[in-house]
Give the backbone structure.
Amino acid sequence: MIEDRDDINGINGINARICSNGSNDSNRRNRKNAGSGGTDRFSVLPPHSIRLGASCLFDRKIRLVEQGLLASLDYGALADFFREKRNQFAAGEFWGKIMRASAEIYAYTGNATLLEKMKGAVRDIISIQGPDGEISTAPKEQQPNGSGGADLWERKYVMLGLLGYYGVTDDDDEKRTVAGALSKLLDYTISQVGEENGKTGILETGWAFCGMESSSILEPAVKIARITGKTEHIAFADYIVSQGCCSRENLFRAVLSGKSPRNIGDNGVPSESIAKAYEMMSCFEGLVEYYRLRGREEDRAAALAFRDKLIEEEITELGSGGADGPFNLGPGTGEQWNATRAEQANPDLDKMMETCVTVTWMKLNLQLLRLEGNSAYADSIERSAYNALCGALRPDGRFFEYFPRFNGIRNTEVNFSYNVGGFDLSCCTANGPMGLGIIPSVVFMQSATGPVVNFYTDGSAGFGKLTLDMSSDFPRSGRASIVIGGGSFFTASVLLRIPDYASGFRVELNGAPADITYDPSYPGYAVVNGPFAEGMVIGVSFEIENEMVLSRGSVNSEGNGKALLRRGPVVLSRDSRFTDTGGSVKYSPKPALHDVSQLQGTLLSCEYGGYTWIDYQSAGNGPEKSQFVSWNRIE
Protein backbone atom coordinates (compact mmCIF):
# COMPACT_ATOMS: atom_id res chain seq x y z
CA MET A 1 0.00 0.00 0.00
CA ILE A 2 1.09 3.50 -0.72
CA GLU A 3 2.42 4.43 2.70
CA ASP A 4 4.80 1.46 2.45
CA ARG A 5 6.46 2.44 -0.82
CA ASP A 6 9.18 4.69 0.56
CA ASP A 7 10.03 2.64 3.62
CA ILE A 8 9.58 -1.01 2.70
CA ASN A 9 10.27 -1.10 -0.99
CA GLY A 10 13.38 -3.25 -0.71
CA ILE A 11 13.49 -7.00 -0.54
CA ASN A 12 17.08 -7.53 0.50
CA GLY A 13 17.94 -10.69 2.34
CA ILE A 14 15.65 -12.95 0.34
CA ASN A 15 17.17 -16.35 -0.18
CA ALA A 16 18.69 -17.03 -3.57
CA ARG A 17 16.19 -18.46 -6.04
CA ILE A 18 16.20 -22.23 -6.31
CA CYS A 19 14.41 -23.33 -9.48
CA SER A 20 13.04 -26.82 -9.90
CA ASN A 21 10.73 -28.51 -12.36
CA GLY A 22 7.51 -29.79 -10.92
CA SER A 23 3.79 -30.10 -11.40
CA ASN A 24 1.30 -27.50 -10.28
CA ASP A 25 -0.29 -28.14 -6.87
CA SER A 26 -3.91 -29.04 -7.55
CA ASN A 27 -5.12 -27.71 -4.21
CA ARG A 28 -3.54 -24.27 -4.13
CA ARG A 29 -5.83 -23.01 -1.39
CA ASN A 30 -3.92 -25.19 1.03
CA ARG A 31 -0.45 -24.37 -0.26
CA LYS A 32 2.30 -24.26 2.32
CA ASN A 33 3.27 -20.71 3.18
CA ALA A 34 6.85 -19.70 2.44
CA GLY A 35 8.86 -16.86 3.91
CA SER A 36 11.74 -15.97 6.16
CA GLY A 37 13.13 -13.23 8.37
CA GLY A 38 11.31 -9.92 8.45
CA THR A 39 11.69 -9.21 4.74
CA ASP A 40 9.18 -9.13 1.90
CA ARG A 41 9.29 -11.38 -1.13
CA PHE A 42 7.18 -8.99 -3.23
CA SER A 43 7.04 -5.21 -3.24
CA VAL A 44 4.61 -2.71 -4.69
CA LEU A 45 5.78 -0.53 -7.55
CA PRO A 46 6.44 3.22 -7.17
CA PRO A 47 3.57 5.65 -7.78
CA HIS A 48 2.46 6.13 -11.39
CA SER A 49 4.17 2.92 -12.57
CA ILE A 50 0.95 1.10 -13.48
CA ARG A 51 -1.83 1.82 -15.94
CA LEU A 52 -4.85 -0.40 -16.43
CA GLY A 53 -6.74 -0.34 -19.71
CA ALA A 54 -9.89 1.74 -20.12
CA SER A 55 -11.83 -1.50 -20.64
CA CYS A 56 -10.59 -2.91 -17.32
CA LEU A 57 -13.31 -3.14 -14.67
CA PHE A 58 -11.01 -1.83 -11.95
CA ASP A 59 -9.88 1.21 -13.93
CA ARG A 60 -13.51 2.15 -14.54
CA LYS A 61 -14.41 1.75 -10.87
CA ILE A 62 -11.42 3.73 -9.63
CA ARG A 63 -12.18 6.64 -11.95
CA LEU A 64 -15.86 6.49 -11.02
CA VAL A 65 -14.96 6.93 -7.34
CA GLU A 66 -12.39 9.62 -8.12
CA GLN A 67 -14.95 11.64 -10.09
CA GLY A 68 -17.93 10.84 -7.87
CA LEU A 69 -16.95 10.54 -4.21
CA LEU A 70 -13.50 12.15 -3.96
CA ALA A 71 -14.38 15.11 -6.18
CA SER A 72 -17.58 15.75 -4.22
CA LEU A 73 -16.22 15.70 -0.69
CA ASP A 74 -15.26 18.84 1.21
CA TYR A 75 -11.96 17.83 2.85
CA GLY A 76 -12.10 20.88 5.07
CA ALA A 77 -15.42 19.66 6.48
CA LEU A 78 -13.72 16.36 7.33
CA ALA A 79 -11.11 18.30 9.34
CA ASP A 80 -13.78 20.34 11.12
CA PHE A 81 -14.40 17.46 13.51
CA PHE A 82 -10.85 18.08 14.81
CA ARG A 83 -10.85 21.84 14.38
CA GLU A 84 -14.03 22.28 16.40
CA LYS A 85 -13.39 19.50 18.94
CA ARG A 86 -16.81 18.05 18.20
CA ASN A 87 -16.19 14.95 20.34
CA GLN A 88 -18.60 12.86 18.23
CA PHE A 89 -18.18 9.12 18.13
CA ALA A 90 -15.60 7.98 15.54
CA ALA A 91 -16.28 10.96 13.23
CA GLY A 92 -12.55 11.66 13.14
CA GLU A 93 -11.93 8.46 11.17
CA PHE A 94 -13.27 9.99 7.96
CA TRP A 95 -10.40 12.42 7.31
CA GLY A 96 -7.79 9.68 7.47
CA LYS A 97 -9.76 7.12 5.49
CA ILE A 98 -10.44 9.55 2.66
CA MET A 99 -6.87 10.88 2.65
CA ARG A 100 -5.38 7.38 2.62
CA ALA A 101 -7.65 6.35 -0.27
CA SER A 102 -6.97 9.61 -2.14
CA ALA A 103 -3.22 8.98 -1.94
CA GLU A 104 -3.60 5.42 -3.21
CA ILE A 105 -5.84 6.47 -6.07
CA TYR A 106 -3.61 9.43 -6.96
CA ALA A 107 -0.64 7.05 -7.11
CA TYR A 108 -2.55 5.25 -9.85
CA THR A 109 -4.32 8.03 -11.80
CA GLY A 110 -1.86 10.91 -11.30
CA ASN A 111 -4.83 13.31 -11.17
CA ALA A 112 -3.30 16.77 -10.54
CA THR A 113 -6.59 18.17 -9.19
CA LEU A 114 -6.76 15.41 -6.61
CA LEU A 115 -3.14 16.07 -5.62
CA GLU A 116 -3.88 19.75 -5.01
CA LYS A 117 -6.91 18.81 -2.94
CA MET A 118 -4.75 16.47 -0.87
CA LYS A 119 -2.04 19.11 -0.39
CA GLY A 120 -4.58 21.56 0.95
CA ALA A 121 -6.11 18.96 3.25
CA VAL A 122 -2.72 17.94 4.69
CA ARG A 123 -1.70 21.53 5.33
CA ASP A 124 -5.08 22.11 6.96
CA ILE A 125 -4.88 19.16 9.36
CA ILE A 126 -1.27 20.04 10.31
CA SER A 127 -2.37 23.62 11.02
CA ILE A 128 -4.85 22.18 13.52
CA GLN A 129 -2.12 20.21 15.31
CA GLY A 130 -1.25 21.62 18.71
CA PRO A 131 2.31 22.56 19.68
CA ASP A 132 2.40 19.44 21.86
CA GLY A 133 1.52 17.26 18.83
CA GLU A 134 -2.19 16.87 19.59
CA ILE A 135 -4.62 16.04 16.81
CA SER A 136 -7.85 14.86 18.41
CA THR A 137 -11.57 15.51 18.16
CA ALA A 138 -11.88 15.12 21.95
CA PRO A 139 -11.27 17.77 24.62
CA LYS A 140 -8.02 17.25 26.52
CA GLU A 141 -9.74 16.26 29.74
CA GLN A 142 -11.34 13.25 27.99
CA GLN A 143 -8.23 12.06 26.17
CA PRO A 144 -7.06 9.46 25.30
CA ASN A 145 -10.53 7.94 25.35
CA GLY A 146 -12.89 10.70 24.29
CA SER A 147 -15.16 10.80 21.23
CA GLY A 148 -17.17 7.94 22.67
CA GLY A 149 -14.04 5.85 23.13
CA ALA A 150 -12.84 6.32 19.55
CA ASP A 151 -10.05 8.82 20.24
CA LEU A 152 -7.13 6.47 19.45
CA TRP A 153 -9.03 4.90 16.55
CA GLU A 154 -9.42 8.36 15.02
CA ARG A 155 -5.75 9.21 15.60
CA LYS A 156 -4.84 5.96 13.87
CA TYR A 157 -6.60 7.12 10.74
CA VAL A 158 -5.06 10.58 10.88
CA MET A 159 -1.68 8.84 10.96
CA LEU A 160 -2.58 6.53 8.07
CA GLY A 161 -3.87 9.45 6.02
CA LEU A 162 -0.68 11.44 6.58
CA LEU A 163 1.42 8.36 5.82
CA GLY A 164 -0.47 7.95 2.56
CA TYR A 165 0.37 11.50 1.51
CA TYR A 166 3.97 11.07 2.68
CA GLY A 167 4.26 8.15 0.25
CA VAL A 168 3.13 10.05 -2.84
CA THR A 169 4.42 13.61 -2.50
CA ASP A 170 7.56 14.43 -4.45
CA ASP A 171 8.21 17.57 -2.42
CA ASP A 172 11.02 16.90 0.07
CA ASP A 173 10.01 19.85 2.25
CA GLU A 174 6.47 18.51 2.48
CA LYS A 175 7.83 15.07 3.31
CA ARG A 176 9.81 16.52 6.21
CA THR A 177 6.81 18.49 7.43
CA VAL A 178 4.53 15.45 7.32
CA ALA A 179 7.13 13.24 8.99
CA GLY A 180 7.48 15.83 11.74
CA ALA A 181 3.73 15.98 12.27
CA LEU A 182 3.52 12.19 12.44
CA SER A 183 6.37 12.00 14.92
CA LYS A 184 4.79 14.66 17.14
CA LEU A 185 1.36 12.98 17.03
CA LEU A 186 2.84 9.63 18.01
CA ASP A 187 4.92 11.29 20.76
CA TYR A 188 1.77 12.95 22.07
CA THR A 189 -0.09 9.64 22.06
CA ILE A 190 2.78 7.92 23.88
CA SER A 191 2.65 10.66 26.54
CA GLN A 192 -0.91 9.53 27.34
CA VAL A 193 -0.94 5.79 26.67
CA GLY A 194 1.18 3.09 28.29
CA GLU A 195 2.05 1.23 31.47
CA GLU A 196 3.77 4.07 33.30
CA ASN A 197 2.13 5.92 36.18
CA GLY A 198 -0.25 8.61 35.04
CA LYS A 199 -0.88 6.98 31.67
CA THR A 200 -3.91 5.05 30.46
CA GLY A 201 -3.37 1.45 29.42
CA ILE A 202 -4.27 0.90 25.79
CA LEU A 203 -6.62 -1.95 26.72
CA GLU A 204 -8.54 0.48 28.93
CA THR A 205 -9.52 2.51 25.87
CA GLY A 206 -12.01 1.95 23.06
CA TRP A 207 -15.77 1.82 22.87
CA ALA A 208 -16.83 -1.83 22.99
CA PHE A 209 -14.12 -4.34 22.12
CA CYS A 210 -11.80 -4.46 25.11
CA GLY A 211 -9.09 -2.30 23.55
CA MET A 212 -8.98 -4.07 20.19
CA GLU A 213 -10.09 -0.99 18.29
CA SER A 214 -7.47 1.25 19.92
CA SER A 215 -4.71 -1.36 19.61
CA SER A 216 -5.05 -1.27 15.83
CA ILE A 217 -2.98 1.93 16.03
CA LEU A 218 -0.11 -0.58 15.92
CA GLU A 219 0.01 -0.42 12.11
CA PRO A 220 0.78 3.31 11.75
CA ALA A 221 2.94 3.29 14.91
CA VAL A 222 5.30 0.78 13.27
CA LYS A 223 5.35 2.69 9.99
CA ILE A 224 6.16 5.94 11.78
CA ALA A 225 8.88 4.17 13.78
CA ARG A 226 10.50 3.10 10.51
CA ILE A 227 10.53 6.70 9.32
CA THR A 228 11.80 8.25 12.55
CA GLY A 229 13.92 5.44 13.96
CA LYS A 230 13.08 6.76 17.43
CA THR A 231 13.51 4.18 20.18
CA GLU A 232 10.38 5.38 21.98
CA HIS A 233 8.31 4.79 18.87
CA ILE A 234 9.64 1.25 18.54
CA ALA A 235 9.05 0.69 22.25
CA PHE A 236 5.43 1.78 21.86
CA ALA A 237 4.90 -0.86 19.16
CA ASP A 238 6.53 -3.42 21.49
CA TYR A 239 4.11 -2.36 24.22
CA ILE A 240 0.99 -2.79 22.07
CA VAL A 241 2.02 -6.26 20.93
CA SER A 242 2.88 -7.30 24.49
CA GLN A 243 -0.67 -6.40 25.54
CA GLY A 244 -2.20 -8.75 22.96
CA CYS A 245 -4.63 -6.12 21.66
CA CYS A 246 -7.56 -7.30 23.80
CA SER A 247 -8.16 -7.33 27.57
CA ARG A 248 -10.41 -10.40 27.48
CA GLU A 249 -7.92 -12.58 25.62
CA ASN A 250 -4.59 -12.05 23.89
CA LEU A 251 -5.50 -12.12 20.18
CA PHE A 252 -2.19 -13.49 19.00
CA ARG A 253 -1.87 -16.26 21.56
CA ALA A 254 -5.49 -17.28 20.98
CA VAL A 255 -4.91 -17.74 17.27
CA LEU A 256 -1.67 -19.65 17.81
CA SER A 257 -3.56 -22.00 20.12
CA GLY A 258 -5.95 -22.81 17.26
CA LYS A 259 -8.93 -20.84 18.52
CA SER A 260 -11.61 -19.76 16.06
CA PRO A 261 -11.70 -15.99 15.56
CA ARG A 262 -15.40 -15.87 16.45
CA ASN A 263 -14.63 -17.39 19.87
CA ILE A 264 -11.79 -15.09 20.88
CA GLY A 265 -12.77 -13.25 24.05
CA ASP A 266 -16.03 -15.18 24.32
CA ASN A 267 -17.60 -14.82 27.77
CA GLY A 268 -20.62 -17.01 27.09
CA VAL A 269 -23.01 -14.09 26.52
CA PRO A 270 -23.75 -13.67 22.77
CA SER A 271 -24.85 -10.04 23.21
CA GLU A 272 -21.45 -9.21 24.74
CA SER A 273 -19.29 -10.86 22.11
CA ILE A 274 -16.31 -8.85 20.88
CA ALA A 275 -15.40 -10.76 17.70
CA LYS A 276 -15.56 -7.58 15.61
CA ALA A 277 -14.25 -8.55 12.21
CA TYR A 278 -12.90 -5.21 10.96
CA GLU A 279 -11.05 -4.20 14.12
CA MET A 280 -9.62 -7.67 14.73
CA MET A 281 -8.14 -7.90 11.23
CA SER A 282 -6.69 -4.40 11.63
CA CYS A 283 -4.71 -5.62 14.63
CA PHE A 284 -3.27 -8.50 12.63
CA GLU A 285 -2.38 -6.17 9.79
CA GLY A 286 -0.40 -4.21 12.37
CA LEU A 287 1.22 -7.44 13.53
CA VAL A 288 2.55 -8.08 10.01
CA GLU A 289 4.10 -4.63 10.05
CA TYR A 290 5.57 -5.40 13.45
CA TYR A 291 7.05 -8.63 12.10
CA ARG A 292 8.84 -6.59 9.45
CA LEU A 293 10.23 -4.47 12.25
CA ARG A 294 11.24 -7.17 14.73
CA GLY A 295 11.40 -10.38 12.69
CA ARG A 296 9.89 -12.57 15.43
CA GLU A 297 8.69 -15.82 13.91
CA GLU A 298 5.78 -16.12 16.35
CA ASP A 299 4.26 -12.91 14.95
CA ARG A 300 4.45 -14.12 11.37
CA ALA A 301 3.00 -17.48 12.42
CA ALA A 302 0.09 -15.81 14.20
CA ALA A 303 -0.77 -13.65 11.20
CA LEU A 304 -0.67 -16.60 8.80
CA ALA A 305 -2.71 -18.81 11.14
CA PHE A 306 -5.32 -16.08 11.57
CA ARG A 307 -5.76 -15.61 7.84
CA ASP A 308 -6.04 -19.37 7.29
CA LYS A 309 -8.71 -19.63 10.01
CA LEU A 310 -10.69 -16.90 8.32
CA ILE A 311 -10.53 -18.73 4.98
CA GLU A 312 -11.70 -21.91 6.70
CA GLU A 313 -14.50 -20.43 8.80
CA GLU A 314 -15.50 -16.91 7.83
CA ILE A 315 -14.84 -15.74 4.27
CA THR A 316 -17.78 -16.15 1.91
CA GLU A 317 -17.89 -16.86 -1.80
CA LEU A 318 -18.07 -13.09 -2.37
CA GLY A 319 -14.79 -12.57 -0.53
CA SER A 320 -16.00 -10.93 2.67
CA GLY A 321 -17.27 -12.03 6.09
CA GLY A 322 -19.10 -11.23 9.29
CA ALA A 323 -22.84 -11.22 9.96
CA ASP A 324 -25.59 -10.39 12.45
CA GLY A 325 -25.85 -13.98 13.72
CA PRO A 326 -26.43 -16.72 14.51
CA PHE A 327 -23.78 -16.91 17.28
CA ASN A 328 -22.26 -13.52 18.10
CA LEU A 329 -24.81 -10.78 18.72
CA GLY A 330 -22.58 -8.13 20.27
CA PRO A 331 -22.00 -4.48 19.32
CA GLY A 332 -21.63 -3.73 15.64
CA THR A 333 -24.67 -5.58 14.36
CA GLY A 334 -23.79 -7.43 11.17
CA GLU A 335 -20.06 -6.84 11.65
CA GLN A 336 -18.93 -9.74 13.87
CA TRP A 337 -17.40 -13.08 12.98
CA ASN A 338 -20.20 -15.64 12.96
CA ALA A 339 -18.92 -18.75 11.15
CA THR A 340 -20.04 -16.84 8.07
CA ARG A 341 -18.62 -19.32 5.60
CA ALA A 342 -21.02 -22.01 6.81
CA GLU A 343 -23.86 -19.55 7.38
CA GLN A 344 -23.60 -17.51 4.18
CA ALA A 345 -26.83 -18.89 2.69
CA ASN A 346 -28.74 -18.80 6.00
CA PRO A 347 -31.95 -16.82 5.25
CA ASP A 348 -32.08 -15.57 8.85
CA LEU A 349 -29.07 -13.34 8.25
CA ASP A 350 -30.01 -9.83 7.22
CA LYS A 351 -26.79 -7.85 7.65
CA MET A 352 -23.51 -9.35 6.57
CA MET A 353 -20.20 -8.75 4.79
CA GLU A 354 -19.58 -5.13 5.83
CA THR A 355 -17.60 -3.32 3.12
CA CYS A 356 -15.07 -2.23 5.77
CA VAL A 357 -14.49 -5.94 6.37
CA THR A 358 -14.02 -6.55 2.64
CA VAL A 359 -11.43 -3.78 2.33
CA THR A 360 -9.51 -4.81 5.46
CA TRP A 361 -9.53 -8.46 4.34
CA MET A 362 -8.04 -7.38 1.00
CA LYS A 363 -5.42 -5.26 2.77
CA LEU A 364 -4.46 -8.09 5.12
CA ASN A 365 -4.00 -10.41 2.14
CA LEU A 366 -1.88 -7.80 0.38
CA GLN A 367 0.31 -7.59 3.48
CA LEU A 368 0.78 -11.36 3.38
CA LEU A 369 1.24 -11.45 -0.40
CA ARG A 370 4.11 -9.01 -0.05
CA LEU A 371 5.56 -10.92 2.85
CA GLU A 372 5.19 -14.47 1.55
CA GLY A 373 5.15 -14.30 -2.25
CA ASN A 374 2.36 -16.89 -2.24
CA SER A 375 -0.32 -16.74 -4.92
CA ALA A 376 -3.03 -17.91 -2.48
CA TYR A 377 -3.21 -14.36 -1.12
CA ALA A 378 -3.67 -12.92 -4.61
CA ASP A 379 -6.46 -15.48 -5.13
CA SER A 380 -8.27 -14.03 -2.12
CA ILE A 381 -7.80 -10.41 -3.17
CA GLU A 382 -9.07 -11.16 -6.66
CA ARG A 383 -12.24 -12.84 -5.39
CA SER A 384 -13.04 -9.92 -3.08
CA ALA A 385 -12.29 -7.35 -5.78
CA TYR A 386 -14.50 -8.87 -8.47
CA ASN A 387 -17.41 -9.59 -6.14
CA ALA A 388 -17.95 -8.00 -2.72
CA LEU A 389 -15.99 -4.79 -3.35
CA CYS A 390 -17.06 -3.84 -6.87
CA GLY A 391 -20.58 -5.10 -6.17
CA ALA A 392 -20.86 -2.68 -3.25
CA LEU A 393 -20.14 0.43 -5.34
CA ARG A 394 -23.24 2.22 -6.63
CA PRO A 395 -23.35 3.36 -10.28
CA ASP A 396 -22.82 7.06 -9.42
CA GLY A 397 -19.53 6.35 -7.60
CA ARG A 398 -20.67 8.22 -4.47
CA PHE A 399 -21.80 5.37 -2.21
CA PHE A 400 -20.56 1.93 -1.17
CA GLU A 401 -23.14 -0.51 0.07
CA TYR A 402 -22.65 -1.15 3.77
CA PHE A 403 -23.99 -4.72 3.83
CA PRO A 404 -23.94 -6.49 0.44
CA ARG A 405 -26.23 -9.47 0.11
CA PHE A 406 -26.41 -12.58 -2.04
CA ASN A 407 -30.12 -12.42 -2.87
CA GLY A 408 -32.69 -9.63 -3.05
CA ILE A 409 -32.10 -6.02 -4.07
CA ARG A 410 -29.11 -3.79 -3.39
CA ASN A 411 -29.05 -2.73 0.25
CA THR A 412 -29.16 0.95 1.24
CA GLU A 413 -29.14 0.26 5.00
CA VAL A 414 -26.28 1.97 6.87
CA ASN A 415 -25.05 1.35 10.42
CA PHE A 416 -22.80 4.37 10.85
CA SER A 417 -22.59 7.68 8.99
CA TYR A 418 -22.36 11.47 9.33
CA ASN A 419 -23.40 14.32 7.12
CA VAL A 420 -20.11 15.93 6.12
CA GLY A 421 -20.53 19.27 4.38
CA GLY A 422 -23.83 18.10 2.90
CA PHE A 423 -22.49 14.67 1.91
CA ASP A 424 -23.86 11.62 3.73
CA LEU A 425 -20.66 9.68 4.40
CA SER A 426 -20.62 6.23 5.98
CA CYS A 427 -17.56 4.40 7.23
CA CYS A 428 -17.90 1.94 4.33
CA THR A 429 -18.20 4.66 1.71
CA ALA A 430 -15.06 6.23 3.17
CA ASN A 431 -13.23 2.88 3.21
CA GLY A 432 -14.34 1.40 -0.11
CA PRO A 433 -12.09 3.60 -2.28
CA MET A 434 -9.03 2.23 -0.48
CA GLY A 435 -9.97 -1.28 -1.58
CA LEU A 436 -10.17 -0.12 -5.19
CA GLY A 437 -6.98 1.89 -4.87
CA ILE A 438 -4.80 -1.08 -3.92
CA ILE A 439 -5.90 -3.25 -6.85
CA PRO A 440 -3.41 -1.84 -9.42
CA SER A 441 -0.64 -2.48 -6.86
CA VAL A 442 -1.65 -6.14 -6.92
CA VAL A 443 -2.03 -6.56 -10.69
CA PHE A 444 1.71 -5.93 -11.17
CA MET A 445 4.34 -6.30 -8.44
CA GLN A 446 8.11 -6.66 -8.13
CA SER A 447 10.20 -9.53 -6.76
CA ALA A 448 13.92 -10.12 -6.42
CA THR A 449 13.57 -12.41 -9.42
CA GLY A 450 11.78 -9.86 -11.59
CA PRO A 451 8.30 -8.57 -12.45
CA VAL A 452 5.20 -10.30 -11.05
CA VAL A 453 1.84 -10.55 -12.82
CA ASN A 454 -1.04 -11.40 -10.48
CA PHE A 455 -4.22 -10.48 -12.37
CA TYR A 456 -4.82 -11.03 -16.07
CA THR A 457 -6.39 -7.86 -17.47
CA ASP A 458 -5.60 -5.00 -19.83
CA GLY A 459 -2.78 -2.91 -18.42
CA SER A 460 0.87 -1.97 -18.43
CA ALA A 461 3.62 -1.40 -15.88
CA GLY A 462 7.18 -0.13 -15.75
CA PHE A 463 9.93 -1.97 -13.87
CA GLY A 464 12.80 0.42 -14.31
CA LYS A 465 13.64 0.28 -18.01
CA LEU A 466 11.70 -2.93 -18.60
CA THR A 467 7.98 -2.59 -19.36
CA LEU A 468 5.13 -5.10 -19.60
CA ASP A 469 2.08 -4.36 -21.73
CA MET A 470 -0.71 -6.88 -21.16
CA SER A 471 -3.99 -7.48 -22.98
CA SER A 472 -6.64 -9.97 -21.89
CA ASP A 473 -10.37 -10.58 -22.16
CA PHE A 474 -10.51 -12.27 -18.73
CA PRO A 475 -12.89 -13.43 -17.23
CA ARG A 476 -14.52 -14.43 -20.50
CA SER A 477 -11.43 -16.48 -21.31
CA GLY A 478 -8.14 -17.37 -19.67
CA ARG A 479 -5.94 -15.83 -22.34
CA ALA A 480 -3.45 -12.99 -21.96
CA SER A 481 -0.68 -11.55 -24.10
CA ILE A 482 2.23 -9.73 -22.43
CA VAL A 483 4.59 -7.69 -24.63
CA ILE A 484 8.10 -6.91 -23.38
CA GLY A 485 9.24 -3.33 -23.89
CA GLY A 486 12.05 -1.04 -22.84
CA GLY A 487 14.35 -1.13 -25.83
CA SER A 488 17.04 -3.19 -24.12
CA PHE A 489 18.14 -6.72 -23.27
CA PHE A 490 16.86 -7.98 -19.89
CA THR A 491 18.01 -10.96 -17.84
CA ALA A 492 15.22 -10.81 -15.24
CA SER A 493 12.57 -13.51 -15.01
CA VAL A 494 8.82 -12.89 -15.00
CA LEU A 495 6.57 -14.50 -12.40
CA LEU A 496 3.07 -15.42 -13.57
CA ARG A 497 0.39 -16.30 -11.03
CA ILE A 498 -1.34 -19.63 -11.57
CA PRO A 499 -4.87 -18.94 -10.28
CA ASP A 500 -6.52 -21.48 -8.00
CA TYR A 501 -9.33 -21.96 -10.55
CA ALA A 502 -7.02 -22.48 -13.58
CA SER A 503 -6.42 -25.79 -15.29
CA GLY A 504 -4.04 -26.53 -18.14
CA PHE A 505 -1.87 -23.48 -17.43
CA ARG A 506 0.36 -22.89 -20.44
CA VAL A 507 2.98 -20.27 -21.27
CA GLU A 508 4.53 -19.47 -24.64
CA LEU A 509 7.33 -17.12 -25.59
CA ASN A 510 7.06 -15.77 -29.13
CA GLY A 511 4.64 -18.57 -29.97
CA ALA A 512 6.82 -21.46 -28.73
CA PRO A 513 6.66 -23.26 -25.36
CA ALA A 514 8.46 -21.11 -22.80
CA ASP A 515 11.22 -22.15 -20.44
CA ILE A 516 9.15 -22.47 -17.21
CA THR A 517 10.33 -23.36 -13.73
CA TYR A 518 8.54 -23.51 -10.38
CA ASP A 519 10.37 -21.84 -7.54
CA PRO A 520 9.48 -22.95 -3.99
CA SER A 521 10.16 -19.39 -2.85
CA TYR A 522 7.08 -18.31 -4.83
CA PRO A 523 4.32 -20.91 -4.35
CA GLY A 524 1.70 -20.86 -7.09
CA TYR A 525 3.77 -18.95 -9.66
CA ALA A 526 5.24 -20.01 -12.98
CA VAL A 527 8.69 -18.47 -13.51
CA VAL A 528 9.37 -17.51 -17.13
CA ASN A 529 13.11 -17.31 -17.41
CA GLY A 530 14.84 -14.62 -19.45
CA PRO A 531 16.67 -13.23 -21.21
CA PHE A 532 14.07 -10.98 -22.80
CA ALA A 533 14.37 -8.32 -25.46
CA GLU A 534 12.15 -5.59 -26.85
CA GLY A 535 9.09 -6.96 -28.65
CA MET A 536 9.09 -10.45 -27.19
CA VAL A 537 5.60 -11.72 -26.35
CA ILE A 538 4.66 -13.94 -23.40
CA GLY A 539 1.41 -15.76 -24.10
CA VAL A 540 -0.61 -17.12 -21.17
CA SER A 541 -3.57 -19.47 -21.54
CA PHE A 542 -5.59 -21.59 -19.17
CA GLU A 543 -9.06 -23.02 -18.82
CA ILE A 544 -11.23 -21.20 -16.28
CA GLU A 545 -12.98 -23.76 -14.14
CA ASN A 546 -16.71 -23.30 -13.71
CA GLU A 547 -17.94 -24.49 -10.33
CA MET A 548 -21.26 -24.88 -8.62
CA VAL A 549 -20.78 -24.57 -4.86
CA LEU A 550 -23.21 -26.13 -2.40
CA SER A 551 -23.98 -24.37 0.87
CA ARG A 552 -23.49 -26.55 3.93
CA GLY A 553 -22.87 -26.48 7.67
CA SER A 554 -25.49 -23.90 8.62
CA VAL A 555 -27.41 -24.24 11.89
CA ASN A 556 -30.50 -23.43 9.80
CA SER A 557 -31.44 -26.30 7.50
CA GLU A 558 -32.84 -23.79 5.01
CA GLY A 559 -29.33 -22.44 4.62
CA ASN A 560 -27.99 -25.79 3.39
CA GLY A 561 -28.15 -27.48 0.01
CA LYS A 562 -28.37 -24.32 -2.07
CA ALA A 563 -26.17 -23.78 -5.10
CA LEU A 564 -24.00 -20.85 -6.18
CA LEU A 565 -22.53 -20.65 -9.68
CA ARG A 566 -19.02 -19.31 -10.17
CA ARG A 567 -16.73 -18.83 -13.16
CA GLY A 568 -13.20 -18.61 -11.85
CA PRO A 569 -13.30 -15.92 -9.14
CA VAL A 570 -16.52 -14.35 -10.45
CA VAL A 571 -19.80 -15.23 -8.73
CA LEU A 572 -22.68 -15.40 -11.21
CA SER A 573 -26.21 -14.27 -10.42
CA ARG A 574 -29.62 -14.23 -12.06
CA ASP A 575 -31.03 -10.71 -12.43
CA SER A 576 -34.70 -9.95 -13.11
CA ARG A 577 -33.63 -7.53 -15.88
CA PHE A 578 -32.47 -10.49 -17.97
CA THR A 579 -34.06 -13.71 -16.74
CA ASP A 580 -36.44 -15.42 -14.33
CA THR A 581 -35.13 -15.32 -10.75
CA GLY A 582 -37.78 -17.50 -9.13
CA GLY A 583 -37.06 -20.93 -10.54
CA SER A 584 -34.71 -23.61 -9.24
CA VAL A 585 -31.54 -24.73 -10.99
CA LYS A 586 -30.02 -28.06 -11.86
CA TYR A 587 -26.96 -28.88 -9.79
CA SER A 588 -23.72 -29.84 -11.51
CA PRO A 589 -20.36 -29.61 -9.72
CA LYS A 590 -18.59 -28.55 -12.94
CA PRO A 591 -21.31 -27.00 -15.10
CA ALA A 592 -20.83 -26.28 -18.81
CA LEU A 593 -21.66 -22.62 -19.47
CA HIS A 594 -22.86 -21.54 -22.89
CA ASP A 595 -22.69 -18.26 -24.81
CA VAL A 596 -20.06 -16.80 -22.52
CA SER A 597 -20.05 -13.15 -23.52
CA GLN A 598 -20.76 -9.69 -22.15
CA LEU A 599 -24.32 -8.37 -22.12
CA GLN A 600 -24.59 -4.59 -22.16
CA GLY A 601 -23.82 -3.19 -18.72
CA THR A 602 -22.19 -6.38 -17.45
CA LEU A 603 -18.69 -7.78 -17.12
CA LEU A 604 -19.68 -11.36 -17.91
CA SER A 605 -22.79 -13.17 -19.03
CA CYS A 606 -23.60 -16.74 -19.97
CA GLU A 607 -26.40 -19.29 -20.28
CA TYR A 608 -26.91 -22.27 -18.02
CA GLY A 609 -29.97 -24.39 -17.22
CA GLY A 610 -32.31 -22.24 -19.25
CA TYR A 611 -31.35 -19.02 -17.42
CA THR A 612 -29.17 -16.04 -18.22
CA TRP A 613 -26.46 -15.40 -15.64
CA ILE A 614 -24.41 -12.24 -15.13
CA ASP A 615 -21.51 -11.33 -12.88
CA TYR A 616 -22.50 -10.54 -9.28
CA GLN A 617 -21.09 -7.02 -9.26
CA SER A 618 -23.42 -6.08 -12.15
CA ALA A 619 -26.48 -7.79 -10.65
CA GLY A 620 -28.99 -5.33 -9.21
CA ASN A 621 -26.74 -2.45 -10.25
CA GLY A 622 -28.64 -1.20 -13.27
CA PRO A 623 -30.31 2.20 -13.63
CA GLU A 624 -33.38 0.84 -11.80
CA LYS A 625 -33.64 -1.57 -8.87
CA SER A 626 -33.87 -5.21 -9.86
CA GLN A 627 -34.09 -8.48 -7.98
CA PHE A 628 -31.10 -10.80 -8.14
CA VAL A 629 -30.35 -14.31 -6.87
CA SER A 630 -26.91 -15.82 -6.19
CA TRP A 631 -27.78 -18.69 -3.84
CA ASN A 632 -30.23 -20.84 -5.79
CA ARG A 633 -32.74 -23.53 -4.94
CA ILE A 634 -31.85 -26.87 -6.52
CA GLU A 635 -34.27 -28.93 -8.65
Summary: The chain is about 35% helix and 15% strand.
